[in-house]
Amino acid sequence: MNPIEIAPGVFWVGAIDWNIRDFHGYSTERGSTYNAFLVMDEKPVLIDTVKAPFAGEMLSKVSRIVDPAKIAMIIANHGEMDHSGALPALARAVGPEKPILCSKMGA
After folding, report:
1. Are 69 and 82 in contact (CB under 8 A)?
2. Could you report the per-residue pLDDT of 50-81, keeping only the tens digit for each?
3. CA-wise closest residue to 63 among 17, 2, 106
4. Percent of the chain with pLDDT strictly greater than 90
């Protein structure tokens, strides 16, 4: 699946997990999404990541838009694995000098 531009310069680069059937106590008979967004502005920013098994898929989508090393910063809304599981892979791809911003709970 390709990235989806949801607004000018804002791309969904997440993943669909067709196999999950229970998500935070909700029945998900048709799967669920892990939402990550790439904002292309003066400096590209990635908001959230996906579950770890989908890291390659997310990085592939990002790479179709921009070289991951050009991402200026990562914003992690919170630490649940559906938002942060691919964070280690993404941090390696963007480089160790790039900031990762998060809330107190995320830290």
Report:
1. no
2. 999 999 999 999 999 999 999 999 998 877 77
3. 2
4. 61
Has residue 37 got a pLDDT over 90?
yes
> Rounded to the nearest 10 degrees, how much is the dihedral formed by the CA atoms of 68, 74, 77, 30?
0
Radius of gyration of the chain (CA): 13
Tokens matching residue 28: 């998900």
pTM of the model: 0.87
C-alpha torsion 5→66→2→60, nearest 10: -150
- Tokens 């997990």 locate to 17
Query: Which of 8-12, 65-69, 95-99 shows the lowest per-residue confidence on average (mean pLDDT)?
Result: 95-99
Tell me whether strands 100-102 and 73-76 are parallel, antiparallel or unpaired. Answer: parallel
- Measured in degrees and rounded to the nearest 5, phi and psi for residue 81 equal -60, -25
Q: At what angle do helices 55-63 and 87-94 cross, to 10 degrees?
A: 40
What residues contact 72, with CB distance under 8 A and at least 6 apart? Answer: 43, 44, 45, 98
